[in-house]
Specification:
It is a single chain. The protein has six helices and 15 strands. By secondary structure, it is α/β, with parallel strands linked by helices. Strand 3 (53-57), helix 2 (63-71) and strand 4 form a beta-alpha-beta unit. The radius of gyration is 17 Å and the shape is globular.
């Protein structure tokens, strides 16, 4: 990959169209998805028949969402992303991959309430690490709306959740427990700087999920949770 990010369209190994902007973060995300797509996109037909919603929390620029549209053509997609400019980039990916009729974009952060919040990020590190704060924050930031899990799903049946949003995994798990929502598959990137990851994992196990570590990292583990007993102990890769 070049040292200077060149904005251009590329095609993923699975046939997805990705727009790589001048933000170098896009290149790293594309490389990760191309390399680890099988792990990040499990076969949903192993756990649920056709239909239902795939929920992504932390849509960023839409590369994961675009890949999900191509890999899961029988599913609808809901993408949660608080940054209004990034929502426009997600929509661009959705349109380029013929997913407009199957996709709903929620321009908000996932939270336990509907209070306004602030999204702060550091340009020196690309757009990785954008974090939601309850109050106004110093540095480069934008005001954002908040929505609960019930708001986001709007009554839809959820078959899978993919959460890679700093801080959002904690309200997500609290609301899964409180609202009785049990999608067959949940993939979480846990950020220890924003909460108790040990308790987060224990809560998911209490909710009846088997744990499959995808990345063993004490600070930022990536974990897939598979609901018992409706699914096998291991879920195969997507085709």
């Amino acid at each position: 990959m070049p040292e200077v990010a060149l904005p251009l369209w590329v095609v993923s190994p699975h046939g997805t169209r990705w727009w790589l902007s001048d933000d170098w973060t896009d290149d790293h995300i594309a490389a990760s998805l191309a390399r680890e797509g099988g792990r990040l996109f499990p076969r949903l037909l192993d756990v649920e028949p056709e239909g239902g919603v795939v929920l992504e929390i932390g849509g960023h620029h839409g590369l994961w969402a675009a890949e999900a549209l191509v890999r899961y053509p029988s599913r609808r997609l809901v993408v949660v992303e608080p940054h209004p400019g990034w929502c426009r980039r997600i929509r661009r990916h959705v349109e380029a991959n013929h997913g407009t009729s199957r996709t709903r974009i929620v321009a908000a952060c996932l939270a336990d309430d509907r209070q306004p919040r602030t999204l702060r990020f550091d340009r020196r590190g690309g757009t990785w690490g954008a974090t939601v704060f309850d109050a106004a924050s110093a540095g480069e930031s934008v005001p954002v709306a908040s929505a609960t899990l019930a708001d986001v799903l709007a009554g839809d049946d959820c078959v899978m959740i993919h959460c890679n949003a700093e801080w959002a995994e904690f309200p997500l798990v609290r609301q899964l427990a409180a609202d009785g929502i049990r999608p067959p598959l949940v993939t979480l990137m846990a950020h220890s700087e924003y909460g108790d990851v040990t308790e987060l994992r224990a809560t998911m196990r209490r909710l009846g999920y088997a744990e499959q570590p995808l990345r063993r990292d004490d600070r930022r583990p990536v974990i897939r949770y598979v609901r018992r007993p409706r699914v096998p102990a291991s879920v195969t890769e997507a085709t």
